[in-house]
Amino acid sequence: MGNKKILIVDDDPDVRQGMNVRLRANHYDTFFAGDALSSMSEARKHEPDLIILDLGLPAGDGFVVMERLKAIASLAAIPVIVVSARDVRANKDRALKAGAKAFLQKPVDNAELLKVIRQALGEPAQAEKPVVHDLGSL
Amino acid sequence: MKEKALQVLLVEDNAGDARLLREMFSTERAGSFELTHLLRMSEAMIHLAKGGVDVVLLDMGLPDAHGLDTVRRAHEVAPDVPLIVLTGLDDEALAAEAMKEGAQDYLIKGQIENRALPRALRHAIERHRMQTESDLIRTNQLQFKDEFLSHVSHELRSPLTAIYQFVTILLDRLAGELNPEQHEYLEIVLRNVKQLQSMINDLLEVTRMQAGKLQIELQCTSVSDAIVYTVNTLQTAATAKGIILTSEIELELPSACADPTRIRQILIILVDNAIKFTPANGAVKIQARVSRENPNLLVLEVSDSGFGISPDMTERIFERLFQTPDPASAGRKGLGLGLFICKELVTRQGGEIWARSAPGQGTVFSVTLPVFSLPNLIAPSLKRERLTEGPITLVVTEIGSQTGWLSHEVRAEQSQRVRDILQQCLHSDLDLLFPKMGLAGATELFFILAITDEIGGEAISKRIQERLGGCEQLQQAGLTNSTSYHSLEAIKRDASESMKDFVEKVATQIQELMDEEISSRMVKNG
Question: Which residue range is the domain that position B200 belongs to?
Answer without folding.
Answer: 148-210
